[in-house]
Structures are given as C-alpha cells and as structure tokens.
Amino acid sequence: MLPISVCIIAKNEEKHIEECCKRLVPYGFEIVLADTGSTDRTVELARKYTNNIYHFEWCGDFSAAKNYAMEKASHDWILSIDCDEYIESVDTACLTACMKSQPAAAGRILIRNRFTENGQTSYEQVRVSRFVNRRYFHFEGIVHEQLVPRSASSHASLSDTYSPVSLSSADMTRSTASSSVKYVYPAPITVLHVGYDGSEEEMQAKSKRNIALLKHELDTNGPDPYLYYQLGQSCRKLHDYEQAFHYYDLGLSMDVDPALDYVQTMVESYGYTLLDLKRNKDALNLLGVYDDFAGHADFVFLMGLIYMNNGMLDEAVNEFQKATTMEEFSVDGVNSYKANYNIGVIYECAGYPDEARAAYRKCGDYKPALARLRQL
Predict the structure, then answer these.
(1) I want to staple 362 with a disulfide (CB 3.0 to 4.6 A). Which of 63, 90, 340, 347 is the partner?
(2) How far apart are CA 7 and CA 34, in angstroms?
(3) Which contiguous run of DSSP H or E holds residue 303?
(4) What is the β-pairing status of strands 137-140 and 53-55?
(5) H-only helix segments in 52-191
(6) Is pTM beyond 0.85 here?
(7) pLDDT one-digit tens code per residue, 237-250
(8) Phi, psi of 186 (to 5 degrees)
(9) HSE (side-chain half, CA atoms, 13 Å) at 39
(10) Is residue 174 within 8 Å of 164, Cβ to Cβ?
C-alpha cells in the first residue's frame, strides 16, 4: 500500500463521513480526521474506519485545522479531501510514478462537482491542488484555503506560468510579464463532490459564513484577487449579483494570471454576472481577452450566450458550434448538449424548424431539448 495519509477535517458531517471513509478503504490509505466540535455521530461513524481521530479547537481558520490534521499524519504524502468528497478512482501505479518524479510539486486532483440544473443532475469538473508532500507544502487562508509552498505565500505560486493580464470592466487590455516556475502536475485521482446537494438554506448559510471569513481575511491581509474571486462566488450563490460584480471587478482590475484556474472561472463568472444584471453590451468587452481564455469550451460557450443576448445570432451560433469541437471544459454540456440546445433555440426562433430539430436531436436526453422537439 502507498505511504499516503488522507487528511479530513469535520464538524457535524454524519451525512457524509461514512461514505467518504468507505471509498478510501480499498486503497489502504491512512485516514486522519481532525474533528472541530461535532455534536452528531460524525466521530462515532468515523471510528469504524480509523483510530486516528483528533480534536481541534475551532478558531475560525480552515487552514489551521487542515495543517493540524497534516501534522498528525504518519506519512509525509498527504491527500486532503473534505467529508462531502468521495473517491471515484485512483491510478496507484501512475500515482507512485508521480511521487517519485514530482516530490516537491503539488498534485492537482480532478474534482467532479455534482449539482442540479433544470431538474437534471449536472457536473462541473475542476482540478485543485490537494496531493502534496508536507515537507514542501502547507495550507494558507482562513477560508477557501490553498496549498502553498513553504517558502512562498502567494496564490500565484501554484500556477504553471505567470503572465498577468489586467481585466477591469472599462479596460480589458493585456499586460506583459513572464516566468517559468512550475509547482503543479495533474494527479491521477478523481473525486466526486456532493456538497451542492444540500438545501438552499444550507447553501445560503455556508455562503454567508464564508463571506464573513473572507472579509476578515481581506481586512487583515489587504487586497487579493483570489479573495475577491471567492467573495464574488459567494455573492453569486446568494443571488446578490451587484455585489458579485463589485468583487469580480476588483479582482480583475489587479494583475492576475490567466493560466490559473480560478482566474479562468472568475472571468466566466464575471461574464455571467453581467448577463444576470442585463448589462449585455458591457459583457461584449470580454472580446478583449478572448485569446487568453478561449482555450476552454466554457469561455467560448459564454461568448455564445453573450452574442445571443445582444441579438448577434450568427456570431452566437459560430461560438456554440466551436464549443462542440473543444475537449477542454469544466461544466458538463458546454461542449455538447447545452451548446447544441442553444443552437436549436436560435434556429427555431429564426424560423428554421428543420435545422432546429437537427440541433435538438444532438442533445441526447437533455430534457429542455426533448420538450422543444415535442413542440416542433
């Protein structure tokens, strides 16, 4: 078995902890749990799978709790996951090779976020640095914590390259700088995140908690694009689009690296927020950074929506069609059924029912497309 410790922090997670631990058993990983004050059966259920359970006095700092769990591990190699994250697959042979060849780098595991959209289960996939040797990395940030090298403290230190781009709502122009530091690699680990399955009330409570912690960190450490990004994301979850726009605009007005995943997501969330605010013409400003972000189907799909909302239907169809040819994506469907559905809607509205049917048929069992086919 590989010398890996899986570190988890928990508080009142009886809904998830057993499934989380059960998925780890086949791999023989050591399980280390830092409980921050559970009053339910979390600890009782976890004891079925590990004796390495420790109490951590909650201090409002997620990094402190996760670093404590890492300190209690028997092994230097650490996989950090949350209770609502379930292992789906681990290529142990490939992982062994990564441990030998990348001892001082961070392994970015693939996380599949499950959520409900239009009455159907959908998935978004992201890579996040979660697998490291603790001799070289530790957590920083009181909320939405990040693994950073022990010799560094910036969020940008985990990117493959550094090439900042200035992105304010008024001025979307490229600035230049470069470096070739490399700290990350794709780890052969896939995890299913089910945390978005909770009730709307639970999601709102979590977002409000995160906003308070993020503002505290911002007040303590000063302006930071990553903190602005996370504040924007939390405000979007609360449907407070004006505040979300405010924080995204602050973050994107700073020098940020378009190679970073969170920057890619922030730009896309910024575009969706402008559409939610009916600021459709302002959203067209994203054309100024098209070349920086159009390597992902998510951004190309977003540009299709922006064109669509501005009545530029030919341009919209071209973007959606381009998205269907792309392999790099995060949100399920942006390079397949969702793009084809929007093409169908445009053709139907433009009075081309045959072309609309052809596009809808490419959507498989996507319910909105099936409904339109029945209407046609």
Answers:
(1) 340
(2) 8
(3) helix 297-309
(4) unpaired
(5) 62-72, 92-101
(6) no
(7) 999 999 999 999 99
(8) -75, 115
(9) 0
(10) no
